[in-house]
Amino acid sequence: DAGVTQSPTHLIKTRGQQVTLRCSPKSGHDTVSWYQQALGQGPQFIFQYYEEEERQRGNFPDRFSGHQFPNYSSELNVNALLLGDSALYLCASSLTGGGGYEQYFGPGTRLTVT
Amino acid sequence: RKEVEQDPGPFNVPEGATVAFNCTYSNSASQSFFWYRQDCRKEPKLLMSVYSSGNEDGRFTAQLNRASQYISLLIRDSKLSDSATYLCVVIVDNYGQNFVFGPGTRLSVLP
User: Rounded to whole angstroms, how far apart are CA atoms A43 and A20?
Assistant: First the structure.
C-alpha cells in the first residue's frame, strides 16, 4: 500500500523564479492538503483540494496556487519566489467522508530560495 | 492569541520518566484533535487521535478538556526512540478541511 509520495525531495531556486511541487496521495485517498513548514515551526495550512477544486485556503498570497488531477494527485505552484518561501513543503492526503479526519503526510519537498 | 499553543520545551528527560505535554486552543468550536510526532527533518506522523472520553495506546495517553480548551499527551516509561517533536493539531471547521498545528514541543529522552 503506497503511502504519500512527493517530488522532488530537494530544490534550489532563485528569487523571482517559479516552482512546481508534486504529490501523489495514499492509495484510496481523494483529498490533498498542502502545508508550509519553516524551520522550528509547526506546519502552516496553504490549501486543500478535493474533486479537483480548491476547497479551502489558508492565509497565503495568490502566488501560491495548486491543482488536483483526476487521479487525485496534486501540484503546488509558487510564483515570484521570495527568500521567505524557503521551507519544507508538505503534502497530506485524507479521505473525505471516510469517517475520520486523519491526514497522512508525505516526506516533503525542501525548497531553498537564494 | 495564537489558535493553538503548546508548551515551549524542550523537554529533556531520562529514560523511564513520565512526561506530559499540554496544548491549548482558542476556537471553542474546534471539532477534532490529534497528536502527531515529527522526527528531525522528517514528515509529521499521526500518533493518536484525541477523543472526548480520552484514549490510551500503550504508553501514550491523550486527554481532551473541552471546557478549558486544552489537550494533553502523557508518555509513560519514555524510551530513547520517543525523542521527537510532538505537534498538537486542531481541526477548526466542521468538514475536517483545516488542520491547525501548534508550534510543537521537542522531547529529548536521555540515556
Answer: 19
